[in-house]
């Protein structure tokens, strides 16, 4: 059962309150703005929080410079504020600090209301931004660990892939003309999408340590899912002789049973070469139908080979640090 108050909600409420109190203690004007900035600074990941905070600080400096220039030349009125926006927004886009456009413009309105660009008010707005964004970053230094959930995702994904391959092996043995795996394929696709989002969120919760492993793992499994979908299409078109299908079915079962995170697929790829060799020395097809089905069976094996190659490539492309994670 989900708690009524989530962690992000709690951090937002506490952070906004603390930011306002600090701004008031420092005697800053418009102290509530520090709390609003904190609310906008609480993000889902540490890295996002820092990036947005830096963008907003840069945007604030730019906004105060533009506003100070425009207000000095035009005065403190609605036309001046509109002219400020016409100049500031394109510059913010140009310097890639668009996340700070709204917050910076709110701070600029304080200058408009006070009819002043004195050092006191410039400092006031900068401190409001520093306090609000700083509290947001500080609270975002704590993020709950989600590696455990990602590990569960991995086990679920592998189990579904294992089930699909076992069903394919069974369909080959029974000379099935159709394999209905729509639900499990859909469930697997949904699992992969959610797990990929979690993997990216986990990646962005690390600032110094590089945590790409789970992202790369999910990308590898997603590619394997596309291969499995293609392999499934053969079951709507072919029937084959028992000797060949039994050989391929047995190997497909071996792949299914060996499908897990730490299997590099090296041994399976070597064994697959023997399967191809056995197929080569068998007698040639005697009918057109047999020829077509043998060709599709060969392509099924080639796709299975590609499935394994994807896993081997994944392992070989890992950095030394990620390989330690992979092999631990």
From TrEMBL:
InterPro entries: ArAE_1 (IPR010343), ArAE_1_C (IPR021062), ArAE_1_C_sf (IPR038323), UPF0421 (IPR052984). It is a multi-pass membrane protein. The keyword Nucleus does not apply. The chain crosses the membrane at residues 12-40, 61-87, 125-143. The keyword Metal-binding does not apply. It is found in: Cell membrane. This is Membrane protein. Residues 148-312 form the Putative aromatic acid exporter C-terminal domain. Keywords: Cell membrane, Membrane, Transmembrane, Transmembrane helix. GO terms for cellular component: plasma membrane. Gene3D superfamilies: Putative aromatic acid exporter, C-terminal domain.
């Amino acid at each position: 059962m989900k708690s009524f108050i989530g962690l992000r909600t709690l951090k937002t409420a506490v952070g906004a309150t603390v930011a306002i109190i600090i701004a008031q203690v420092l005697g800053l004007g418009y102290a509530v703005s520090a709390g609003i900035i904190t609310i906008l600074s609480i993000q889902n990941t540490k890295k996002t929080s820092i990036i947005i905070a830096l963008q907003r600080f840069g945007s604030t400096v730019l906004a105060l410079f533009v506003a100070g220039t425009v207000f000095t030349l035009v005065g403190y009125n609605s036309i001046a504020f509109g002219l400020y926006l016409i100049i500031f927004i394109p510059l913010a886009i140009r310097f890639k600090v668009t996340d700070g456009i709204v917050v910076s413009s709110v701070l600029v309105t304080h200058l408009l209301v006070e009819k002043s660009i004195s050092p006191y008010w410039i400092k006031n707005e900068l401190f409001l931004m520093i306090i609000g964004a700083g509290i947001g970053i500080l609270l975002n230094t704590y993020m709950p660990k989600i590696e455990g959930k990602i590990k569960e995702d991995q086990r679920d994904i592998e189990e579904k892939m294992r089930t699909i391959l076992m069903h394919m092996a069974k369909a080959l043995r029974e000379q099935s003309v159709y394999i209905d795996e729509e639900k499990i394929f859909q469930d697997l696709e949904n699992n992969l999408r959610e797990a990929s989002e979690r993997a990216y969120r986990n990646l962005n919760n690390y600032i110094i340590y590089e945590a790409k492993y789970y992202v790369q793992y999910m990308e590898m499994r997603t590619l394997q899912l596309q291969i499995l979908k293609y392999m499934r299409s053969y079951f709507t078109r072919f029937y084959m002789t028992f000797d060949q299908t039994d050989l391929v079915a047995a190997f497909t079962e071996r792949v299914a049973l060996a499908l897990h995170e730490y299997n590099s697929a090296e041994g399976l790829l070597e064994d697959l070469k023997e399967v191809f060799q056995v197929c080569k020395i068998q007698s040639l097809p005697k009918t057109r139908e047999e020829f077509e089905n043998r060709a599709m069976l060969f392509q099924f094996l080639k796709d299975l080979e590609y499935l394994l190659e994807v896993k081997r490539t994944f392992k070989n492309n890992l950095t030394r640090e990620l390989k330690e994670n992979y092999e631990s």
